[in-house]
TrEMBL record, chain B:
InterPro entries: Anti-sigma-factor_SerPK (IPR050267), HATPase_C_sf (IPR036890), HATPase_dom (IPR003594). Gene3D superfamilies: Histidine kinase-like ATPase, C-terminal domain. This is ATP-binding protein. Residues 8-140 form the Histidine kinase/HSP90-like ATPase domain. It comes from Micromonospora coerulea. Keywords: ATP-binding, Kinase, Nucleotide-binding, Serine/threonine-protein kinase, Transferase. GO terms for molecular function: ATP binding.
Length: 118, 144
């Protein structure tokens, strides 16, 4: 399945819903969208991976890039993911220790709002 | 024994095709259903790595993927890049991963290797026997 990207705003947070396959071919589109959001002033970004059915190292690289960019801009970045195959990818790469990972968008937003985010 | 060979121009768009073919052949060979996600990811990572190397060195040669099911399901992904570029299994610790100084390319390479090593029990990265390049060889059991 092709990559799908949809953005919505929840209070102070920008939620980017990602669906389909994030790989070496589609990851540049995800990078562009994240850059657009950050350049457009978004500082509290939540990326919802709930409808992602494939994620590779290129996609992970893009997500880390966004995390760093937001951190250096004084913002926050969190991921929403509750699928075991994807969570395993984060564990194996140790990126579960780098990203705030939450099972739902609500959980990500409330964790960030209480100051527990990245 | 059945062998399926796929050779593709080193462009990112074809990596998905390689993944689809690799999983289809794995399923046909009898690889357990619950391993197929890992097969898909590992073949994708190996092909992504090969494509990146070919692009880095300006090589238009095709990337070769060879799948065979003699006893186990074995997949070879062969690139034609100079050897010094190819072999280097870098496992990055978490505090390195988020460092500002680490480029996205370096991070992606390190994470790609971590995924290969993490998902493939029987993994070898070695020089090709003839000519220039490396092969990533991955083997999965077939359950009957």
């Amino acid at each position: 399945m092709e990559l799908s990207l949809a953005t919505r705003t929840v209070g102070e947070h920008t939620v980017l819903e990602v669906g389909g396959e994030v790989d070496v071919y589609t990851a540049p589109r995800l990078r562009e969208r994240l850059l657009e959001l950050i350049d457009g002033g978004a500082r509290r970004v939540v990326v919802d991976l709930g409808r992602v059915d494939f994620l590779d190292s290129t996609g992970l690289g893009v997500l880390v890039g966004a995390l760093k960019r937001l951190r250096s801009a004084g913002g926050s970045f969190a991921l929403v993911c509750d699928k075991e195959p994807l969570l395993k990818i984060f564990r194996i790469t140790a990126l579960d220790q780098v990203f705030p990972l939450h099972p739902t968008v609500d959980a990500a937003i409330s964790a960030d709002s209480t100051g527990a985010g990245a | 024994m059945a062998t399926v060979k796929l050779s593709f121009s080193p462009a990112p768009v074809h990596v998905r095709t390689a993944r689809l073919v690799g999983v289809a052949v794995a399923r046909r060979a009898g690889v357990r259903e619950d391993l197929l996600d890992e097969v898909r990811l590992a073949i994708g990572e190996a092909c992504t790595r090969a494509v990146a190397l070919h692009r880095q060195y300006g090589l238009s040669d095709p990337v070769l993927v060879e799948m065979s099911d003699s006893g186990a399901y074995a997949v070879r992904v062969v690139d034609r890049a100079p050897i010094e570029a190819g072999i280097g299994l870098a496992a990055l610790p978490p505090d390195e991963l988020a460092k500002e100084s680490l480029s996205e390319d370096a991070l992606t390479t390190g994470v790609g290797f971590a995924l290969l090593a993490g998902f493939v029990e029987d993994l070898q990265v070695r020089p090709v026997e003839e000519g220039i390049g490396t092969e990533v060889r991955m083997v999965w059991p077939v359950g009957r």
